[in-house]
Amino acid sequence: MSNNPNNWPLWEVFIQSKRGLEHKHVGSLHAADPQMAIENARDVYTRRQEGQSIWVVPAGAISSSQPDDAAMLFDPADDKTYRHPTFYTMPEGAKYI
Amino acid sequence: MTDVKNLEELFQSKIDAEQKIEPKDWMPEKYRKTLIRQISQHAHSEVVGMLPEGNWITRAPNLRRKAILLAKVQDEAGHGLYLYSACETLGVSREQTIDDLLSGKAKYSSIFNYPTLSWADIGAIGWLVDGAAIMNQVMLCRTSYGPYARAMVRICKEESFHQRQGYEIMAVLAKGTPEQKEMAQDALNRWWWPSLMMFGPTDANSPHSAESMKWKIKRQSNDELRQTFIDRTVQQAEVIGLSIPDPDLKWNEATQHYDWGTIDWTEFNNVVAGNGPCNKERLVARNKAHDEGAWVREAALAHAAKKAKRKAA
Ligand SMILES: [Fe+2]
Ligand SMILES: [Fe+2]
Question: Which of B26, B219, B236, B258 to probe the A interface (max A CBs under 10 A)?
Fold first, then answer.
């Protein structure tokens, strides 16, 4: 990682493949500004009609959870099986539930 | 003028071709306004809907039921958030939307203006109120506005346990002591008609529906959804030995649907107008929670500013 201000900043690229679907992270690239990042993303990530909309986000603007924290963050959901519909016994014969 | 007309045609052709509308697309002002009203009302309903159920968390009959009810109410808070966020993509601020709820300007589903008098009401709400909401929300997974449809898909996945836990409560009570069964029947009696009202006015009295259907914001009419709900729920009531409080309810072999009685629309209009049993109480509770949370929001900002300053130094 260089702090040289002459280097282009890093952008994370999100592509929406079809109207109605969410934008999905596909990768990253370097570009001088947002417009250039979008144009470059068009060139590298949508050459085969993969997208109909592009988001670019400065990589530095993304905050991430730490791998070491995964257990603390996500384990509490493990014993809450009652959040799933399969946890419940439905009376014999009941339909559409 | 011609420009707008062309834009409108292009917009409608996208919708006719089952393409979703996304935030950056041109859209008629009325489409935007309708969505803002509908999505924010939907969000408010999720949030206010926590109040009648929250009333029973500390009095749930056992730890299992308590954990389940907590999880359900927690889900509803999340649903409010997804919907407020979808609303923000249409260019309204979160603050404004919430202010409109707190001032009483915005509406939320009238069903939450009824009180939860016994534990069986928690069963009836999950079974009937979430059941009715799910009918509507499954339809909205195919609504034409992308962010709204995506929020709905997520919500529907989470909702799937809400109705089942409620029906399970009712089934257990209906098989219990005579008093427990009576409690379940009483809850069904009180929640049945308000649940049918959740689908809104009849098609004949629903002036905005045609436009919403043309724009595919709605995909099925109020009466269609209500009828499907009735057809399904009557069978579920039979299975657990409870009776629907409607003397006119009768299977119609010709239509393959249930015929049923009439909704008391005077009651409905009264509750919508603010005169239901709990309208005042709900707004007071929301405002109190908002006001008493103010110092937490301020403290979090002050803490964040302090951390940022320390990092910069
Ligand atoms: Fe919900
Ligand atoms: Fe729910």
Answer: B236
